Amino acid sequence: MALHHGVLSLVLLAVVLVVRVESGKNWALVVAGAKDYQNYFSQACSCHAYDTLRNNSIPKENIVYMSYDDVANDPENPVKGNIVNVAGGPNLYPRCKPDYRRKEVTPEVFLKVLTGDKEGVKELIGRDGKVIASGPDDHVFVYMIDHGGPGVFYFPGFVELHNKDLNNALKQMHREKKYKEMVLYVEACESGSMFEGILPEDINIYAISSTNSHESGIMCCWDKLRKVYVGSYFGNAWTYNTDTANLLKETLYQQYEVVKKACNVSGSVSHPQQYGNLSMNSEVLAQYLSKAEGYQSGVCLNTLEVDNTLRSEFSFAGIDLNNPATDMVPIATAARRLIESRDLSDEKQEELKAELRHLMLVKEKAESLTKDLVKAALSSPRGLAETDILTGKEQVFNSECYMAARSLFSARCPGINMGKYPFARRNLHAFINLCNHQPQTDVMNAIMQVTGKYGICQVL
Fold it and tell me: What superkingdom does the record give (predicted)?
């Protein structure tokens, strides 16, 4: 009798599982936030994600894809109309044509698409566009990949999506019953800061960030033919796992463990985090990453596994050229191109050397400026030493001061463009720490004083 009861329980559990997976509609929003050929990885990982969701039978009309879409046919791309996510991998581009391209890829459009505001989208771009038209019984999945900074995710051209704006949109969707449950994967440097201390635990949203709130992501997959990094450890890990696992059995938590392991590479480590309603991590991936009635496990052939056992063959200026930090991609790319330039003309090699020297000069000047700025702002110290400000990794407690300081610095220092030079964003932590401990007037006066006195911004 007990055995019969146990078998019956298992049958009922299986029925409940199928009902849970099949109930409601599946919606997905995939965003590549970067443009330019050196940011190939952003469009490659997002293209792979889109292709994976389509292969898992989520209807095309239920997926919105946003990408600047300038990589596949960039003049530097030796294989036109082609995007791969690992060297030697299959061409993913033919099926992942974006719904929003070029100047339409902005934080404002993204938030309107996410919240299902068709009229708002039309007002912004002058045409009708697809949105996440989800309802109270539906499941929503969001994947975002680009560069990031403290409390921000970047869209093309260093345009910021702030953590408060993203979380306010999520709360709005909850109030308006736009989903039953939602899962977000956000991949960017310091992506944990998009949710840490701000995403509620009681609105049925579960989020994974590729890093904690104060560290960089990690690149992988240098392609010698294309001469760019075509993947990232976090992005490649979750898409490959989704392509090959049985989504009816594997849980969100199990995939989280997969990406944690993948991001623990030799010489470079990032720490994916979980936020929101953590009880959701016991649910199966099929609830969000497939449409159950059309899904078959283990039949996807569009992917290759990333080898995360690579040791650094060489480095430059302390940067691991196999697994560079995401914000070091411009320098790492230039260094690897120079190393592999033996077959190029002397003129081309000199151009590469000049480019690398310039990038290192910008990095050096940005660090020098930050030290001078901190010293000037602490002329009236309030308990913290310069080293505390320069090395601390505090959260943003004075957002008004921090945003004003960033804005003034960008206006005063066009030569240190943090969109073009993502490695310069590492110095933003000093701005956060200053604003947390010094009066805003002291911080702003220090920016004016240093940028004017030393002239290290305009000369670059």
Answer: Eukaryota
Mean pLDDT of 9-19: 42
Residue of 45, 189, 220, 413 marked active site: 189
- Say what the pTM is: 0.87
CA dihedral over 152, 49, 220, 106, signed as positive or negative: negative
100 DSSP 8-state letter = B
What is the distance between the alpha carbons of residues 155 and 150, in angstroms, rounded to a whole number? 14
pLDDT in tens, 398-454: 888 998 998 899 888 888 888 788 898 888 889 999 999 889 999 999 999 888 765
Q: Provide CB contacts within 8 A for 444, sequence distance 6+.
A: 404, 405, 408
Helix (H) / strand (E) containing 6: helix 2-22
Q: What is the pLDDT of residue 383?
A: 63
On whether the CB atoms of residues 229 and 326 are closer than 8 A, the answer is no
3-state SS, residue 195: coil
**What separation in angstroms does the CA of 25 have from each of 57, 288, 289?**
12, 10, 11
DSSP single-letter state for residue 384: -
Query: Which 3 state secondary structure label does DSSP give 226?
Result: coil
The secondary element (H helix, E strand) that includes residue 411 is helix 399-412
The pLDDT of 93-103, averaged and rounded, is 92
| 271 belongs to the catalytic site | no
pLDDT digits (tens, 9 = 90+) for 233-244: 999 999 999 988
Contact of 134 with 27, CB cutoff 8 Å: yes
The whole-angstrom separation of Cα 86 and Cα 236 is: 8
pLDDT above 60 (res 227): yes
Q: Is the pLDDT of residue 380 over 80?
A: no
Please choose, from the candidates 279, 300, 250, the residue with its C-alpha nearest in 3D space to the C-alpha of residue 183: 279
Pick the CATH number of 19-294 from 1.10.630.10, 3.40.50.2020, 3.30.450.20, 3.40.50.1460: 3.40.50.1460
264 contacts: CB under 8 Å, gap ≥ 6 = 308
The domain limits of the chain are 19-294, 361-454
**52, burial (CB in 10 Å: exposed 0-12, middle 13-18, buried 19+):** buried
Q: What is the model's pLDDT at position 265?
A: 72
Known catalytic residue: 189? Answer: yes
Question: Maximum distance among all alpha carbons in the chain?
Answer: 87
Q: What is the mean pLDDT of the chain?
A: 86
Residues shown for the chain:
460
Q: What is the DSSP letter of 312?
A: P
Please tell me which residue in 48, 139, 147, 429 is annotated as part of the active site: 147
